[in-house]
Amino acid sequence: MKSLADLLSTGDLRGKRVLVRSDLNVPLEGTTITDDGRIIASVPTIKALSEAGARVIVSAHLGRPKGAPEDKYSLAPVAARLGELLGCDVVFATDTVGESAQAAVAGATDGDVVLLENLRFNAGETGKTAEDRAEFAGQLAALADVFVSDGFGVVHREQASVFDVARLLPSAVGGLVETEVAVLRRLTTEPERPYAVVLGGAKVSDKLAVIDNLIQTADRLLIGGGMVFTFLKAQGHEVGKSLLEQDQVEAVKGYLDQAQERGVEIVLPVDVIAATEFSADADHEVVGIDAIPADRMGLDIGPKSSELFAQKLADCRTVFWNGPMGAFEMEPYAAGTAALAKALVEITADGALTVVGGGDSAAAVRQLGFTDDQFGHISTGGGASLEYLEGKDLPGLAVLDES
Q: Can you give the pTM of this predicted structure?
């Protein structure tokens, strides 16, 4: 596939309209951006194109609107923040391919940056078939001369702005996506060992495919978060009111047996923080995994588990982490995630490759006071990272190989 460097090396981008698919899907509280990590990550590609004299048209989505405009999902706050980071005015089009977008693009001069309104305000963006997406993809492609795919968080989606547009325009991969793929390739192609994978988050069903694949490649799997209670149940423990996917217990038993056969170490918590309800104000206590009260739910790994996980990571040379260890957004249940992040920071300083796999994990480390440069890499795409590690072909990458 053609790279951003290939595009820039031609020296003929000046005056060209370049449509960039970025991932600007940031968390908002009202109109306040609470984590601008994805915007920051998008800046280098946009800036490089702008400095090369291209007329840059940025496209992105925010949240999950149902194919029609919704004020709470507007990219207007993102346009303002993007302009601050670029150090220039960003022209914000108030629609995706309509009059505002067409006027903004027509009025752009060399080096200008235009941000289109939320792509998912148009039902064609997420259409189930190529026919459903064709009209919208064609309208997007008509705005530009060249397409650059730089939204790693969406390359696992077969959507109009990711997949179909790449077939309609000369296309290249952006710097962000290129970096993400290079890092993930290091995790799947002869990683330096010991290689540990830490999985957390709410549902084990979201991670079954990646667990299945990682049992073939990792040396250790450390399991925390809400998904751990299905593992504990599979081992015969009672889990009280903790999150449990009963229909996945047998599958988890199978993975535990498979890991044992292959010599892959599965590390589970030995204690948890058990609360009477899902609330920061709820009564909570540290209990062993064999003593979770029937009327309580586990909301974080406990202090002994934090120490155990740190010990299991101390000698690792490669670590991939996806999913927090508990309900980190509530202070009483943030210690496990913070302890894990601290352990990764320490081995990163010693030369290990540590990859934080996007989504809630990335938000957690920033919220807990860590900085991106304390880790080897913080991914912008949790779902895309997991699908890559599952060994799946990602449509948004595969289509670029056709270019």
A: 0.92
